[in-house]
Design a protein that fits this description.
Elements (H helix, E strand, L loop, with lengths): L11 E3 L2 E3 L4 E6 L4 E7 L3 H20 L2 H17 L1 H12 L3 H21 L6 E3 L6 E9 L2 E5 L7 H13 L2 E5 L5 H12 L8 E3 L4 H10 L3 E7 L2 H12 L4 E5 L4 E5 L5 H12 L10 E7 L3 H13 L19 H16 L3 E4 L3 E2 L9 E2 L2 E4 L6 H4 L6 E7 L2 H9 L6 E5 L3 H10 L4 E4 L18 E2 L4 H6 L2 E9 L2
Helix pairs in contact: 1-7, 2-4, 2-5, 2-6, 3-4, 3-6, 4-5, 9-10
Bound molecules: adenosine-5'-diphosphate (ADP).
Length: about 475
């Protein structure tokens, strides 16, 4: 494979300026295991400087009209789209995903920005009928203030947009911390935001020590909210830290999504939808299918159809033409998948296809794992309880609707669920019974700019997307106005 040369992204964005530090950290191309760039290794001090800048910029930014803010946002979206090919390449090389998926993600960034630019114009207030003739009861919606945005490595461009766009549209200023595996795409997207002549300090980005940056954002009372997407473990740390100054939180955390395929489902449609969801982004999707429950009557047929499709998936570096499954984000993610599959096989799961790491030849030192299908999975296996976050499809069979509903809810997570059936009464029983924030029926696509995506139980607090996603960056101010 030809070594890929990327631009220099070894800087942060503070107060509208590029800031370099003496110390930096390598960014690894997961398809080769080799460094493709560096970013600065910041910590407490630089984070405080970023908060200072965001805090100084807040009064003026929040006083602009939503139309003025939408102007910057649309300009940002235009610039992102105009640079789509470079951004997609950077995303694919840094993160590992197929170039086509990376292009789709960058297009999604622009759609998300535009949707929020427009929704910001509808942050309307209310007038409540008063009990006294000399009073007016008014409700205003005002920007929360400075917000801390912490993003993960699986959709580093899209998730940045799902936070930065509503924050800016609402009138907030921010300090963003991207994931250590994928900081460069964030720095590049910020470059385009800066090119809109955004006022200095409105948008800031820091890289480096996650723990130190997280603590500094949490401890500073000027940061009025943290929006985080990542693991439940880190979400809990941030929640504890935020308690000290009663900071607002939006948490989009881990999942353990079940799909239930009933015997009356359109099987081919279910197989295609399961494939699209399970193997997108090499299975590193928070609402990705983690457990496949299939009715005993159609179990063998579904497994055979899945096996046939999974064996045909092309695994390669994301930048190779025709790639369907790229490298995993890093060696830790890969090691976790290896351990979960080995635990399942050790406890009696049947390996239908895949089941190992791919090395040698064009896979070289990259973090590749074979698309894998396991049958005969049971509730005792670790991959039934934990988020796999990899290209592994584990199948269990069931016979009773009430029992499969109980099993599917038997987890501390509650992000997404999927059901395939043509029975209307059963659809409503599933809508009522499934303990998830997002449910797809006869399909597996869920995340759209206009829809409120989020989890229940330990999968999170708050919503991303939709008018509810904008609300996360708005505070209510109620005014009882007495007049002559
Ligand atoms: P995942 O397991 O999906 O990689 P993580 O929760 O580890 O998710 O990471 C998501 C984001 O949280 C990344 O930007 C990471 O750097 C950041 N992060 C990790 N630990 C902390 C912490 N203690 N405080 C704040 N952010 C953190």
């Amino acid at each position: 494979m030809q070594p890929i040369q990327l631009d220099d992204w070894n800087f942060m964005w503070i107060n509208g300026e590029q800031v370099r530090l003496p110390e930096s950290t390598d960014v690894i191309n997961p398809a080769t295991g080799q460094a493709v760039g560096q970013v600065p290794r910041g910590g407490e001090e630089i984070t405080r400087r970023a908060i200072d800048a965001a805090s100084q910029a807040f009064p003026a930014w929040s006083k602009l009209t939503p139309m003025q803010r939408a102007g910057y946002l649309h300009d940002w979206a235009d610039r992102v789209l105009a640079d789509r090919e470079n951004l997609a390449l950077l995303l694919s090389v840094e993160q590992g995903k197929p170039l086509d998926e990376a292009r789709g993600e960058i297009e999604g960034v622009a759609v998300f920005i535009r949707w929020n630019a427009e929704e910001g114009k509808r942050a309307t207030g209310e007038i409540i009928p008063a009990v006294r003739p000399d009073q007016r009861l008014l409700v205003f919606r005002q920007a929360v203030g400075v917000v801390g945005l912490i993003t993960p490595a699986n959709f580093p461009a899209a998730i940045l947009a799902t936070k930065a766009a509503p924050a800016l549209a609402a009138g907030c200023t921010f300090v963003l911390k991207p994931a250590e595996q994928t900081p460069m795409i964030a720095i590049a997207l910020m470059q385009h935001l800066m090119e809109t002549n955004l006022p200095a300090g409105v948008a800031n980005l820091v890289t480096g020590d996650a723990d130190a940056i997280g603590r500094t954002l949490s401890a500073d009372p000027r940061v009025r909210k943290i929006s985080f997407t990542g693991s439940t473990e880190v979400g809990k740390i941030l929640m504890r830290q935020a308690a000290d100054n009663v900071k607002r939180l939006t948490l989009e955390l881990g999942g353990n999504a079940p799909v239930i395929v009933f015997p009356d489902a359109d099987l081919d449609k279910a197989v295609d939808a399961i494939m699209a969801n399970k193997f997108e982004n090499c299975g590193q999707v928070c609402n990705g299918i983690n457990r496949i429950y299939v009715h005993a009557d159609i179990h063998q047929e579904l497994v055979a159809k899945l096996a046939d499709k999974i064996r045909q998936l092309k695994v390669s570096s994301g930048t190779e033409p025709g790639c369907q499954i790229g490298a995993m984000i890093d060696s830790n993610y890969l090691a976790k998948v290896e351990a979960l599959v080995s635990d399942a096989v050790g406890k009696g799961a049947k390996l239908i296809t895949g089941g190992s790491r791919l090395t040698g030849g064009s896979y070289g030192g990259g973090y590749f794992y074979q698309p894998t299908l396991l049958d005969g999975v049971t509730p005792e296996m670790e991959l039934t309880k934990k988020e796999i976050f990899g290209p592994v499809a584990p199948v269990q069979s069931f016979t009773d609707e009430a029992e499969v509903l109980r099993q599917s809810n038997n987890t501390s997570y509650g992000l997404a669920g999927y059901v395939f059936t043509r029975d209307t009464a059963r659809i409503f029983r599933m809508i009522d019974g499934m303990e998830v924030g997002n449910l797809a029926i006869n399909g597996t696509s869920l995340a759209y700019p206009q829809a409120p995506f989020g989890g229940v139980k330990e999968s999170g607090i708050g919503r991303v997307g939709g008018r509810q996603g904008l609300e996360e960056y708005l505070e209510l101010k109620y005014v009882a106005l007495t007049h002559e």
